[in-house]
């Protein structure tokens, strides 16, 4: 039986785990929390609970010797576990170490198109940390001969991630004169992309995992509100937005780019189940409704 290690078994990790379990994998997922460990266990995932920097956790990762590693922990300002996990899996028969990165590494492009051939241009501390993590992944391809893949992701949505809470609370706002271009991917298609990156990807290669249609921020938020019977988000002035959401978050929110994936279809041969948010969002909201009723 093949073994998969999901490092940071959160929203995407749980969905990936479900698919790998269907493929008859033994799936181990990491979490720092006891309650999440119980959640993992009830989903058929073996929890590896504890801090990733703990010697015992790293020893157990080494002992597991997984064939597939999916890494979902965002970069940490202190004691980032990525180098430790790369070292702990260096001796394993890894077919792919799939690193979940972010399209934030492209920076703000004023609405222009970017693809995997575009030079990165991170502009925020988080995006710089992502670029540094990607470098570590590429280095591991050389130093450990680990078969790595870098998957740049944007705007994950799906059941349980449909903007419900931020719309309900009024926390989600749009900014006058800045209806930015954004990109999304339904979690089911994201999982297909991650699996295809493992199975058909190239070592150290970058894949943008985004759907087929960038859109304006307002289009997605308005549809999310309409589908869930919630008020559409409020438009506020830029000056009010600084006060309300703070400079750093505002900077991220004002970033505008249209991300294209040349490789998801051509190289990884993934046919998206939900090519646009107009296909995927009604399905995600529908599935949430079903689970609330059951
Ligand atoms: N959500 C998006 O739209 C989006 C867009 C672009 C890129 N991404 C990136 O894609 C990846 C997956 O996204 P997601 O939304 O599925 O993430 P998520 O639900 O937040 O899952 C990430 C998991 O990482 C674990 N984690 C966080 N900090 C950690 C630390 N210091 N040490 C050990 N574990 C830690 C957490 O697990 P425990 O708390 O259980 O330990 C968490 O469940 C993330 O890296 C995210 O930044 C997301």
Description:
Strands 3-2-1-4-5-7-12 form a seven-stranded parallel beta sheet, with helices on both faces. Strands 6-15 form a two-stranded parallel ribbon. Helix 1 links the parallel strand 1 and strand 2. The chain starts with a strand and ends with a helix. The protein has 294 residues and is α/β, with parallel strands linked by helices. The chain has a single domain, classed as Rossmann fold (3-Layer(aba) Sandwich). It contains twelve helices and 15 strands. It is globular. The structure holds NADP nicotinamide-adenine-dinucleotide phosphate (NAP). NADP nicotinamide-adenine-dinucleotide phosphate binds next to helix 1 and strand 5.
Distance between the termini: 33 Å
Which hetero compounds are present in the coordinates? NADP nicotinamide-adenine-dinucleotide phosphate
CATH architecture: 3-Layer(aba) Sandwich
What low-confidence regions span 5 or more consecutive residues with pLDDT below 50? none
Short description:
The chain is 43% helix and 19% strand.
What key phrases describe this protein's structure?
single chain; 294 residues; alpha/beta; Rossmann fold; seven-stranded parallel sheet; globular; binds NADP nicotinamide-adenine-dinucleotide phosphate
């Amino acid at each position: 039986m093949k073994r998969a290690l999901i490092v940071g078994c959160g929203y995407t990790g749980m969905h990936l785990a479900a698919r790998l379990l269907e493929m008859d994998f033994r799936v181990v997922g990491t979490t720092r929390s006891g309650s999440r460990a119980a959640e993992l266990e009830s989903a058929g995932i073996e929890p590896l609970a504890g801090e990733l920097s703990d010697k015992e956790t790293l020893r157990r990762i080494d002992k597991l010797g997984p064939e597939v590693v999916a890494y979902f922990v965002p970069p940490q300002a202190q004691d980032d576990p990525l180098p430790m996990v790369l070292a702990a899996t260096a001796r394993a028969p890894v077919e792919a170490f799939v690193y979940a990165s972010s399209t934030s590494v492209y920076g703000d492009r004023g609405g222009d198109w970017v693809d995997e051939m575009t030079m990165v241009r991170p502009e925020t501390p988080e995006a710089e940390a992502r670029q540094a993590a990607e470098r570590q992944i590429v280095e591991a391809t050389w130093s450990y001969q680990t078969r790595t893949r870098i998957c740049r992701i944007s705007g994950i949505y799906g059941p349980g991630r449909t903007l419900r809470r931020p719309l309900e609370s009024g926390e989600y706002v749009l900014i006058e004169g800045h209806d930015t271009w954004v990109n999304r991917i339904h979690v089911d298609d994201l999982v297909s992309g991650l699996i295809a990156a493992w199975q058909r990807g190239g070592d150290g290669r970058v894949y943008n995992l985004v759907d087929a249609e960038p859109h304006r921020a307002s289009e997605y938020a308005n549809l999310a509100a309409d589908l869930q019977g919630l008020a559409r988000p409020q438009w506020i002035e830029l000056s009010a937005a600084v006060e309300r959401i703070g400079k750093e978050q505002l900077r991220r929110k004002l970033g505008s780019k249209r991300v294209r994936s040349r490789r998801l279809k051509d190289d990884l041969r993934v046919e998206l189940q939900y090519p646009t948010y107009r296909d995927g969002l009604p399905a995600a909201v529908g599935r949430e409704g079903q689970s609330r009723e059951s």
